[in-house]
TrEMBL record, chains A, B:
<dbReference type="InterPro" id="IPR017853">
    <property type="entry name" value="GH"/>
</dbReference>
<dbReference type="InterPro" id="IPR041239">
    <property type="entry name" value="DUF5605"/>
</dbReference>
<protein>
    <recommendedName>
        <fullName>DUF5060 domain-containing protein</fullName>
    </recommendedName>
</protein>
<dbReference type="InterPro" id="IPR013783">
    <property type="entry name" value="Ig-like_fold"/>
</dbReference>
<dbReference type="InterPro" id="IPR032260">
    <property type="entry name" value="DUF5060"/>
</dbReference>
<dbReference type="Pfam" id="PF16586">
    <property type="entry name" value="DUF5060"/>
</dbReference>
<feature type="domain" description="DUF5605">
    <location>
        <begin position="418"/>
        <end position="489"/>
    </location>
</feature>
<dbReference type="InterPro" id="IPR025277">
    <property type="entry name" value="Apiosidase-like_cat_dom"/>
</dbReference>
<feature type="domain" description="DUF5060">
    <location>
        <begin position="17"/>
        <end position="82"/>
    </location>
</feature>
<dbReference type="Pfam" id="PF18310">
    <property type="entry name" value="DUF5605"/>
</dbReference>
<dbReference type="Pfam" id="PF13204">
    <property type="entry name" value="Apiosidase"/>
</dbReference>
<feature type="domain" description="Apiosidase-like catalytic">
    <location>
        <begin position="114"/>
        <end position="369"/>
    </location>
</feature>
Length: 493, 493
């Protein structure tokens, strides 16, 4: 790393310096006035044939940062620009080296319906939901991280703002804006402490290989953050983008249940999307999550569907319809949660949640998890994190393994009988899922002359029973007459 | 009963003579030629202010009958008409007395969405399906009747014609037409033996208080009965109507899976309906049952929807939509069967079938049962009858009791939360059903000042637990956190 001859430039590396790591320029500047609104700052980062622009942000105490995630190894140079003379025109260069192990770069869409890391490795999203886990204080947050570490989840939906809702009455330790509960908030003065904490948690997730599906707005609010003036929304978004878009594991979710945010108009969501996509040169995944009506996922900036089920009974079974309709990856973030609360969205069984995961998977979609068991201390995983008590996570892990073992680590639907969805690769690999049905056997008819090994998979008991011999043409596989069975046929020759 | 002075008239009573019983005029006529096509016969039955016309039928051996179900007590007279001189112009009269105990008359539609017997008593249809039970020989047929006797079912779907399908390869003992397997059938010469047997079974059902939902055509056929010429269809229908419409417990189902009968055109079904409604003065219930596309239940002759679920996952939960769409009773004859065969229509659990019954019931519909457990002798209840082995019938009986205990012995949907359907009478009676959801409690909010008793109903374990005290306004009911629970609130004062 080389420095220019500029006394104010203090360039240090935050976290990793490798490819897809977070490179950070640290600067000193004014602390008077309102640095959030009165000062412009940014830098251009240049490699052999590319120039990338990134805005900087104010971190309090006269500290300014410009962050950048280099997506190519090799030499990069930069030059700052600012309305403040001493932060303007600073130049430097650095070498982007091999990625730190475990950092495969940001996730993006691959082959219309799927995802991969920037290094080309397939990414199979297996998401959970802990909306307000970063607002629970150190002890619980560390427990959540510990739980995640041994869980099957590699994506988490989480809100920037604190949450006010059923089972969410506690105050956060720190707030996103200057001000106080008593005196109100100054939406034009962000609280760096709050965002420093948030980004530490995002970095924690990154080290666990977990994508942070960051919810930028949500309607469960008693502080006013859901109804800020448009200028405050925009300032907040620009601040978040400049601080966080250099984290390789961030996704943008404009809102949870955008359609419940009555103060927002359709054009607001489009403006937010424009601000984010303009300010995030890494092109992180971005979508908007519904309560009732879906967002229009055909908008060009929407990278994937972020779906809450719109029917109480039929959820991930509609994946095919949604794939056909939007021609983008179908991520069903909320299909109801395993639990026993008094609300229909949070009291299905582990069996039913696991079934919904499978129904989505064999149709080429990705279903998300949440857990809402009543707790005397009101620590429900879906919002606060903590411990997992349910029966589905282990089975979801089993499914993840099955998907990762499939060709290309993905499942695409194949034509099948009306009563048994099937995924795989024609002539190579077939995964049939029987759901709640309980056949004692099933007849199959594949092309003659190709031999397959056959496995009977119990998706609930997590067993794979290889059937003796190989199978060809028309054949019968015996099944145990229980729900939640699958059959996998893999070409043998 | 008085007779005219006519040597050929031999009037006897078949079965009951009471109201809604079967009055029968027995005549002797020619046995040469083709009496089925060459001879017309009928009678007019007259009471104080009504005249009802009924066609007669040939029963072989020169025996002719004209049947009539009197729907009013008192004096009736009749006069025959025929193309055969000695059967023409015979007059007589008879007294229609009180109905035989257990005969409440035919069922008809009551209050748009429900049913009642002709005597005014509510009829809550709780149907099962044994398509081909009357073609199985005496021993099995009697076992079926014995099973039905101790079952909760008061309606059975059954085919006139024998059935050829999976698990249905045996030949019937007797065929509906003259001819043989080897030499083919004469569709213009019906086999009285066949129909005599059928009507005995219908009478057996009547004695058990069971409605015979008689399927007139079906596509599961290897004999040709599904593809007869139109003239044969019409002759067959006129024969069936003249023989059977005087049975109080008959319903007409034009077809099972009418849309799989490729040789029939839309206008055929309308012609069949016209023949039946013209020939059946009792106005028995009549509908047409789908496989894929629903029949157009808005046709004026259709008395009720006779539905097969059109979605693998969402079945009786669509009852509300269907009620609103057709404004007629919603009878879901097939929502899938309890069993373990290799077909998706026949391998759901007893839990799931019972759940579908409840989901339909609390939306003001009527779901039907079927059972398809694999059997080494291929005796599956859904087709051949025999014994019931499943877990759902007992629970269906429990539901029947709950419905019959409800005001008016019926359930109508009430406005409710999105996640808990509710049926009952506003301000009087509320039945909430939680389905697969498993809340540990539920908050209710009813109008203040009215007190209710509350019961927690376990629809699977068939228990009703009265909660201590009474409840008013906003209150909480604790629940066990299991699936398949209901809460019943009954006005206490």
């Amino acid at each position: 790393m080389t420095f220019n001859d500029n006394a104010n430039a203090n360039i240090k590396v935050y976290g990793e310096t490798g490819q897809w790591g977070l490179f950070e320029i640290s600067l000193q500047g004014p602390s008077s006035g309102n640095p959030f609104t009165e000062i412009s700052l940014g830098a251009e980062f240049m490699s052999a044939d590319r120039t990338v622009s990134m805005a900087g942000f104010y971190d309090g105490g006269g500290n300014y940062y410009i962050r950048f995630m280099p997506d190519m190894q090799g030499q990069w140079s930069f030059r700052t620009f600012s309305s403040v003379k001493e932060m303007d025109g600073i130049t430097g260069s650095f070498l982007c080296v091999e990625p730190v192990p475990g950092n495969r770069g940001p996730v993006s869409v691959k082959d219309t319906f799927h995802f991969s890391y920037a290094d080309g490795a397939p990414y199979v999203p297996v998401g959970t939901t802990c909306y307000a886990w970063t607002h629970q204080g150190r002890e619980l947050e560390e427990q959540t991280l510990e739980t995640l570490k041994s869980s099957p989840f590699n994506k988490i939906r989480m809100c920037v703002f604190p949450k006010s809702y059923l089972y969410n009455s506690n105050e956060p330790e720190v707030y996103p804006f200057a001000g106080s509960l008593e005196e109100g908030w100054d939406y034009f003065s962000l609280n760096p402490l709050f965002f420093r904490h948030l980004e530490e948690r995002i970095a924690d997730l990154g080290r666990l290989g977990i994508e942070a599906d960051l919810i930028l707005f949500h309607p469960y609010d008693r502080w006013g953050y859901a109804e800020m003036p448009p200028e405050a929304d925009d300032l907040y978004l620009r601040y978040v983008i400049s601080r966080l878009s250099a984290f390789h594991n961030v996704w943008w979710s404009l809102a949870n249940e955008y359609d419940l945010m009555r103060s927002k108009q359709p054009e607001d969501w489009e403006r937010y999307a424009a601000i984010i996509t303009a300010g995030d040169p890494s092109g992180h995944l971005i979508s908007n999550h519904n309560c009732g009506a879906f967002y229009d996922y055909s908008k060009p900036w929407v990278t994937h569907c972020s779906i809450q089920r719109v029917d109480v009974y039929k959820t991930s079974e509609s994946t095919t319809e949604w794939r056909n309709r939007w021609n983008k990856p179908v991520v069903i973030d909320e299909c109801a949660y395993e639990g026993d609360v008094d609300q229909g969205w949070g009291n299905i069984s582990g069996e039913e949640l696991t079934r919904r995961f499978w129904e989505g998977a064999v149709r080429g979609g990705y279903v998300g998890h949440g857990e809402t068991y009543l707790d005397p201390e009101e620590i429900l995983w879906w919002s606060k994190g903590g411990r997992l008590n349910g029966t589905s996570p282990e089975r979801i892990g089993f499914l993840r393994k099955i998907v990762e073992e499939s060709p290309g680590s993905r499942l695409d639907p194949l034509p099948s009988a009306w009563d048994v969805p099937c995924a795989g690769v024609e002539g190579q690999y077939y995964l049939y899922y029987f759901g709640f049905n309980r056949p004692r056997f099933r007849n199959f008819e594949l092309e003659p002359g190709v031999r397959y090994t056959a496995e009977v998979i119990d998706t609930w008991n997590m067993s794979v029973e290889k059937q003796p011999g190989t199978f060809e043409g028309a054949f019968r596989i015996n099944l145990p007459g229980r729900s939640y069975m699958a059959v996998r046929l893999i070409r043998a020759d």
